[in-house]
Amino acid sequence: MKLSTLLRHGAIWLAVFVALFPIAWMASMAFKPPLEWTAAAGNITWLPKAPTLANFEYIFFGTSDAYPSSTVMEKTALRPIFASLLVSTIATMIATVVGSLAAYGYSRHGYGKSLPLALVQLRMFPPLAVIIPIMIMWAYLALIDTWWGLSLIYGIVTLPFAFWLMLTFLEEVPIELEEAALIEGASPSRIFYRITLPLVKPALATTALFVFILNWSDYILALMLTRSKWITIPVFMNDLNSAQTGQLYGAKAALGLIAIVPPLILGVLIQKHLVRGLTFGALKQ
Amino acid sequence: MSSGHAAKTPGKLSESLGERKSRRIGWLLTGPAQALLLFIVVFPTIVTVYVSLTLWTPLDGQPWTQAYRWFAWFDNYVEIFHDAKLFSALGRTLFMVAIAVALEFALGFGLALLFVDRFRFRPIYYTLILMPMMVVPAVAGYMFLMLFQSTGPINQIISAVSGQTFDPTWLANERLAVSAVITAEVWQWTPMVFLILLAGLMSVPEDQVKAARLLGANELQILRRISIPRIKVVIAIALGIRLIEGLKLFDIMYIMTRGGPGVATETLSLYIYKRTYGDLEWAYVSALGLTIVLAMSLVALCLLELAKRRGRQRPAGV
Amino acid sequence: MASIELIDIKKTFGTVVAVDNLSLEIKDSEFVALLGPSGCGKSTTMNMIAGIESPTSGEIRFDGRDISNLPANKRGIGFVFQNYAIFTHLSVRENLAFALRVRATPQRDIDKRVADIAELMRLTNKLDWPSSRLSVNEMQKLAIGRSAIAKPAIFLLDEPLSNVDAAFRAFMRTELKHLQHTLNQTMVYVTHDQIEAMSLADRIAVIDKGVLQQFGTPEQVYNTPANKFVANFMGSPSMNLIEATVNGEGSLLSLHFGAAGAIPVAPTSILCSHLQACRTRNILFGVRPEDIALSAPDDPRPGLVMQASFVEPIGPRTTIHFGGSVPALKVITQKRFVTELGEAHKLLMPEDKCHLFDPASGKAIRAEVAHVDA
C-alpha cells in the first residue's frame, strides 16, 4: 500500500519533470547572456549565472550590447508578434462565427448535412499534400503575404474544430427551451439571440480559445503563404540565425517563450474541454 | 462522457417552425460555412486535377492556366509508383509514426492509469503533464534542437547518470537523429493520448469496477476484463487521431533536422516540401497530393464509422 | 456463512461524520436490514463491511476475526449494487462466470457452476443474451447470481429494489425472501423503505445521522420504538406524536392535551407506570393511527372528543384526520368508515398501545427496561 503510493508518486513526479524540463530549459536559456548559451562538456549552465534581459532586448530592438555587433538585425520580432496576434484573432473570429452558425443551423434546422463529414476530412489531410493548389489560388487572388490571406486560410482550417465543438455543446442545450419560445410566438432570430446565445456563451468562449490556440500554433501555412511582411512568430524564429555566430539560442529561446505563453494560459483555461476539442466532440470529459 | 445523439437526428426545431421558413434559416446559418468549404475545395480540386495531368512548373515562367502546353496525361501518376524516394519517405514516416504512437500510447496509458484515482494535488499534476501539448510545435522542435546539442543538457544528464562522458552530436547521426526526433514528437503528444485515455477510463462506471473488485478481481484483471473492453473505442479514437496527425509530421522535423542527416528523418511531408520548393515540381506534387487525399479519405470514412458505432454502443439505461 | 461484528465504527469525510461509533452484531444466516433516511450513513456502513471504504476508527470482525485490513476482493463478500452494476459489455453467461474466471477456475467447473446458478436464478434460457438487454428483474437476479456463484460468506444488498416500480416491488420482495431462504446466508440489506425492511428482515437496524437508533426484530422496532425518530420513521402513516402535560400525583394521573381535552389514566395500567417513570411534566405522547378506536362522542370511556377535518379513503382503509390545528391526530379505520367533515367522534386510545417520549432527548419513557436492544 505504502510502496505503491510511493511508486505512483515517483512515476508522476518523473512525468511532470520530463514534461516541464524542455520548457524550463528554454525559459532558462531566454535569460542567459550569449556566453552561457553553449558550454564545453561538463560545464553546463542549468540556471543563468548572470541573468539578463539582453535576449528580449535583442528581439524587440534588433540589437543588444550583450550581442556581437555583427548580429544587428533590421527586422525585429515586434512585427511577427503583431502578425501572429492579428491573424490568429481574425481567423478565430471567422472560424468561431461561421462554425457556430453552421452548427446551430445543422443541429436545430437540419441543414448542411454534408458539413460534419466534409469538415473532418478537411482537417485530415497533411497540409503539404494540398498546399500547391492553395498556393496557386492564393497567388491568383493576390492573397500571398497578406494578413487577410493568412487569416482566411487559418479560419478555414480551424473551421472544423469550431463547428464540431459548438455542435456538441449545442446538443447539450435542451431544445425544449427553444421550442417553448417558438410556441409562444418568438421569431427564430429572437430565439437565437435571447435564448440560445446566452446559454452557449461559455461554450463559444471555449471554442474561440481552442481555435485561437490552433491558429497560433501553425507553422507550415505561414511558411508557405507568407514571404516577409506577414510572417508569424514561428517562421521568424526559425530564421533567427546569424551568419557569423550561427544559432542565436538566447534570442530564439526568448521568442519561443513569448510564443508559448498564450497557448499555455489559454490551454489551462479550457483544460476541461480539451478532450472534446481534440476528438471532434467524439469524446467528452 | 458520451457521444452526441442530436447529430444523428438534427433539425428538431424545424418541425415546429414550418418547412419553408426553416429552410431559409437553415441556408442562412450554414451558408457561410458551405461557401468557405466550396471555396477551399472546388477551385483547388480543379487546379490540382488540371495541373497534375501536365508537366508544368513555375520555372517555365508561364502561369498555371497555360499548363496545358505541357499536357502529359497520367505521367505524374505513373511516376508516383516508380518514385523510390517517395516510398522510402513513406516507409520512414510509417516507421517513425508507428514507434512514436506506440510509445505515446504506452506512456499515455500508464500515466492515465495513475490518474484514475483521486489523490492530493491531482489537478495540478494533471495540468502540468498536459503542458507539452500546448507548446507551439515549431517551438517544441526548437526546444529539442537545443536539448540535443552535443554539449546540451541531455548529454549532460546521460553522462551524469552513466558516469561516462557521453557527447554524440545527436542530430548529425542518422540513428540518433531519428530517436531525437521521435523523442520530441513523443514528448509533445503523449499528453494528448494521456488526456483522451484518461477521459475514457474515468467514464468506466465506478460501480462496475467496484463490483469486479468485490467479485475477487485484482487490479490487472479489472483492467483486462472491464476497463479496456469498455474503452476499446476510445483507444481506437486516440490511436486513429495520433496516426493521422503523425502522417502530417512536419514542424518538429523541419526545425530539428530538415530531414537530415541525409534523408534519415525525411518524412512524407518533408519529402513533398522538398519537391515543392527544392525542385518546384508542382505538377508532380499535385498528382501526389491528390493521391494522398483520396487514400486518406478512405481512412476518414472508417474513423467516422467507428465514432458512430461508439454512439450506438452506449449501455441501456441501467 | 459468517457472523459480522461492528465495534465502535466511525467514519468521517473531512469534517462530516457519516457514521458515529456504531456497534452492531449480525448473527450467522441472519437477514438484517439497515434502515434509515437517505444520507443517514447506512450505505457507508455497508461499504465498510464490504471493504470499499475503510473506517476511520473501530473494528470489523467476520466470525470473530478482525478483517479491517483485508482488501475488498479478499473478504468473500457478495455485493449487489443499487443499479446492479451489470457488466453490460459482457453476455449473461460471462457476467455469471466473472468471479470464477478471475480465480482461474477450469472451464469445465465454470460451465457447471454457471449452469447451476442460472438454473437457480431462472436465467438458463437467457445465458447467451447480451446482458444489457435484460429486464430490471432479470438484472437483479443476474447481479445476485453473479455474486452467489463464488459462494460468498456474506451477502450485501444496496437498495436493490429502489429502481423497481411499485407494482413490481412486491413481487421482487417475495423473490428476494425466497432467495435468502435458498441461499441461507448472512445477508445485510440497505434500504430507506420501512415496509421493505419490515417484510424482509429478521432484524432491523434503524440508523439516523450516522447513529444507530435501535436494533431489533421488526416487531420490537415497530411496537416498542426506542425513541421519537424510530417511532416516527416506522409505519405509514407515521405515528401520531402530540405534546401533552402530566397532571396529578402518585397513581392518580391524567394527560392533558391542550384544547383537545384530557384523559384520566387508569392507576393499574402500564401507561400509568410509564408516566410514573417520567421526570418531567411535559411529554410527547405517541399513538399509532391504527391503534386508535373511534366511538360515539358520548361514549363513557376515557378518550378525546375531536372533529373530523379531513378524510382520505385508501382502498379498504380510511385515514381520518382530526382537529384542524394542533393537536392533530390521524386515525386509520379498518373498514370503510362513513363520517361527515366536522362530525365529532370520541378517540379511544388503548393504554397499552400508547408511547411516551422525552420531548428534549426524544428517548422513549418506559417503566421497565425490557426492550432495550440498542
Q: Regarding quaternary structure, how should these chains be classified?
A: heterotrimer
Separation, N- and C-terminal Cα atoms of chain B: 16 Å
Structure annotation, total helices of chain B: 14
| Major sheet characteristics of chain B | none
CATH architecture of the domain at 83-280 in chain B: Orthogonal Bundle
Task: Report the largest inter-chain contact.
Answer: A-B, 105 and 115 residues
Let me know the average pLDDT of chain A.
Answer: 85
> What is the CATH homologous superfamily assignment of the domain at 83-280 in chain B?
MetI-like
Radius of gyration of chain A over all CA atoms, rounded = 23 Å
Structural class of chain B: mainly alpha
Pattern of helices and strands of chain B: HHHHHHHHHHHHHH
Give structural notes.
The complex is a heterotrimer of chains A (285), B (318) and C (374). Chain A has 285 residues and is an all-alpha fold. Chain A has two domains: 96 residues, no CATH class; 156 residues, MetI-like fold (Orthogonal Bundle), CATH 1.10.3720.10. Chain A is built from twelve helices and two strands. Chain A has a two-stranded antiparallel sheet. In chain A, β1 and β2 form a beta hairpin. The longest helix of chain A has 32 residues. The model of chain A has no long low-confidence stretch (mean pLDDT 85). Chain B is mainly α and 318 residues long. Chain B has a domain of 198 residues: MetI-like fold, CATH 1.10.3720.10. In chain B, α3 packs across α14 and α11 runs antiparallel to α14. Chain C has 374 residues and is an alpha+beta fold. Chain C is 24% helix and 32% strand. Chain C has nine helices and 20 strands. In chain C, strands 6-7-8-3-9-10 form a six-stranded mixed sheet, with helices on both faces. In chain C, strands 13-12-11-14-20 form a five-stranded antiparallel sheet. In chain C, α2 crosses α3. Chain C is elongated. The C terminus of chain C is likely disordered. Chains B and C meet through α9 and α10 of B and β6, α2 and α4 of C.
